[in-house]
Specification:
By secondary structure, the chain is an alpha/beta fold. It has one domain: Rossmann fold. 31% of the residues lie in helices and 17% in strands. The chain has eight helices and ten strands. The strands form two sheets. Strands 6-7-8-4-9-10 form a six-stranded mixed beta sheet, with helices on both faces. Strands 1-3-2-5 form a four-stranded mixed beta sheet. A hairpin with a 6-residue loop joins strand 9 and strand 10. It is globular, with a radius of gyration of 19 Å. The structure holds adenosine-5'-triphosphate (ATP) and magnesium ion. Magnesium ion (MG) binds next to helix 3. The site of magnesium ion has 4 residues, from helix 3.
Amino acid sequence: MCITISTTSSDCSERGVKAVPQSELFLREISVDWDEIPRDSYLRAIPALSALRHLPFHCPVTFFVGENGSGKSTLLEGMAEALGFNPEGGSRNYRFSTYDAGSELSGALRPVRGSRREKWGYFLRAESFYNVATAEEEYAKLSSRGSEYYHRRSHGESFLHLIQTNFSGAGLYLLDEPEAALSPQRQLTLLAEIDRCVRAGSQFFIASHSPVLLGFPDAELLCFDGGGIHPIAYEETDSFRITELFIRNRAQILRRLLCADDGED
Ligand SMILES: Nc1ncnc2c1ncn2[C@@H]1O[C@H](COP(=O)(O)OP(=O)(O)OP(=O)(O)O)[C@@H](O)[C@H]1O
Ligand SMILES: [Mg+2]
């Protein structure tokens, strides 16, 4: 079965998404060569990925959304490695490894590049941020920059500091759940940082559950739920719908949820 997401520019505009010409993107598409993936690989059991053959991108900012375990990080990591990034995170100059983070998918992914080439890039995962920060400090000590003291700041402070000092110009950036480190206030700051970079010509891929981050204007949201990867409008995402429902009906939802064991409906 060959499934291609055929989102066109007009599809994007119907969803309020402003597409740019694909040639202007650093990464305009990825395809998967399933012949390169073992028959017994767990990748074949992830519905969103097993159906994936070609995935085109249309916007400078693409979000991966979907339920826990739907395959967002697996694809993001595979893309990062296929694009030459350290699988554990960092820039392309980083080669540290604290665990076996290699992706089974990366060798089967074929990135299709646009006519522009990024000058810089970074792969940042909240879950291995400590290891990236350690490598950043080591690098800073060896260079003329001086130590950046990541470990003397809080998780969120140092995460945002790393972005503010490393993300610039026309770069290619992959972020896995950046909201895990950030307060709502600092997520707004991150939105402004992403906007700053996009205006300078950057492209972002971000796996996220955050209704704040997903609200970035003109981003394309790709949903991994329901058996394949498909575009989705911001207001249709679970992150938006469930958060809105909860905030509007908190007392009622909590009453039903927490009293369920007492036999109340
Ligand atoms: N090395 C592995 N071996 C076997 N299964 C794996 C491996 N890595 C991930 N998985 C499985 O692949 C599925 C997709 O995982 P993935 O981390 O991509 O989900 P996700 O969409 O990023 O979820 P979350 O929102 O919780 O971060 C999960 O069911 C996970 O258990
Ligand atoms: Mg994940």
